[in-house]
Write a structure and sequence with these properties.
CATH class of the largest domain: Alpha Beta
Radius of gyration: 23 Å
Bound molecules: adenosine-5'-triphosphate, magnesium ion
Strand order of the largest sheet: 2-5-6-1-7
CATH superfamily of the largest domain: P-loop containing nucleotide triphosphate hydrolases
Number of strands: 9
Largest sheet: 5 strands, parallel
CATH topology of the largest domain: Rossmann fold
Shape: globular
Order of helices and strands: HEHEHHEEHHEHEHEHHHHHHHEEH
Number of domains: 3
Strand content: 5-15%
CATH architecture of the largest domain: 3-Layer(aba) Sandwich
Distance between the termini: 32 Å
Length: 368
């Protein structure tokens, strides 16, 4: 079995310790300070928060993920699902059903593990006051015991129609719940900053900011070398450095390359930076269809702009050179194309430059 994991939160032996971030987060949890955890995709925000909170004794973890949430009903149901997971007993589910009676809850099965789960009627969930009712049920728990509430991909609440109002309702509830630490995670930096640093936002100055970036290179290298050694592979430092350079040092992508290297090697092998192209072939074989699907949804012009960013980089995308490279006539067309690519999450703006979010997708585009 591969000792590497990617694409999900990691814990226990799959988690490389991040002592300084864990210490700061733990202190916030113990003091009841709200925290906004911000960082690019796949840097380990969810893993860090879940692993740290799990280790704090006497604190229950409430974790709701708002990734791609589109409506108030969906938002309420995500919160209800998390509430029903707070304890693992039949009497617990019955208790939550009762607390949500006004929203006509029904019992179903959690597809992930077959445990009982609750859904609320979608018409009721859309009704005004539904969110208050669900947050009341949560507050009934946080007033009774020590809970750390984690809202993941928090910025996606702004996708919900009337998202500002949803935020205002949440903020007013959170203000009344002074002993509970709330942790808000987000990977879309500018939207998280809008929520927490814009004076017109209900969450203005509502949380301490904690940035999560790359894992300290020496620590991560030592961790990964041990993982390879568990299967009798030697993983030299120059191979790690080459992978880090190819993945903008993003933990999730580094682990994905390591997993592919693992799959394409055998016990006793000494890996080298030259093996990375084999790992990329493994990744393209796994994910090529997703990449093809992603570009299949774009116009020809958007694909030209995306490919030009992959090949020439995303600095100066309105320059004459870039327009020529992308074979596009006007800056207005590039602007529209870039906007669509950003909206789709394929491209991210980072300090005046546009980057292709997934570095393997960028490599794949270069080879087309
Ligand atoms: N502390 C860590 N130790 C080892 N690997 C890690 C660690 N943190 C993150 N990773 C790697 O990154 C992947 C993504 O982690 P995680 O889901 O926690 O990141 P995230 O920042 O929440 O990502 P997303 O932006 O997709 O929500 C993991 O599956 C793992 O491969
Ligand atoms: Mg996450």
């Amino acid at each position: 079995m591969s000792p590497f994991k990617y694409g999900c939160a990691v814990s226990n032996e799959f988690f490389c310790p991040r002592p300084e971030l864990e210490r700061r987060l733990r202190e916030h949890v113990l003091s009841g300070q709200h925290v906004a955890v911000v960082g690019p995709r796949r840097t380990g925000k969810s893993s860090l928060v879940l692993e740290t909170v799990r280790k704090v004794k006497g604190v229950a973890l409430f974790h709701a993920d708002f990734l791609s949430v589109r409506s108030r009903a969906e938002l309420c149901n995500r919160l209800v699902a998390s509430l029903s997971r707070l304890e693992r007993t039949d009497s617990w589910v019955a208790k939550i059903m009762k607390a949500l009676m006004r929203l006509r809850p029904a019992l179903t099965v959690d597809p992930r593990d077959g445990s009982p789960a609750i859904v609320i009627d979608s018409r009721e969930a859309e009704s005004p006051g539904s969110l208050d009712c669900v947050l009341d049920a949560l507050a009934a728990q946080t007033s009774r015991r020590k809970v750390c509430v984690v809202f993941d991909e928090f910025q996606d609440i702004m996708n919900v129609e009337d998202g500002e109002n949803v935020l205002a309702v949440m903020r007013s509830r959170i203000q009344l719940d002074s002993r509970t630490p709330y942790i808000f995670l987000g990977s879309v930096r500018h939207r998280m900053l809008d929520i927490f640093l814009d004076p017109s936002s209900p969450f203005y100055h509502g949380a301490a900011m904690l940035e999560v970036g790359e894992i300290a290179a020496d620590d991560f290298y030592a961790f990964l070398r041990r993982r390879f050694a568990s299967g009798r592979r030697t993983f030299p430092r120059d191979a790690f450095d080459a992978i880090a350079a190819a993945t903008r040092s993003t933990p999730g992508y580094i682990q994905e390359v390591c997993d592919a290297l693992w799959q394409s090697s055998s016990r006793g092998d000494r890996l080298s930076s030259a093996d990375i192209h084999k790992a990329l072939d493994v990744i393209f074989a796994r994910e090529g269809e997703h990449y093809a699907f992603a570009i299949g949804r774009l116009t020809a012009l958007q694909v030209q702009v995306l490919t030009a960013i992959a090949v020439h980089g995303g600095k100066g995308v309105y320059s004459g050179d870039f327009l020529r490279a992308a074979n596009v006539k006007s800056t207005a067309s590039v602007r529209r194309a870039v906007q669509r690519l950003v909206d789709d999450g394929l491209v991210v703006p980072v300090s005046g430059e546009y980057l292709i979010d997934n570095p393997f997708f960028a490599e794949w585009l270069k080879l087309r």
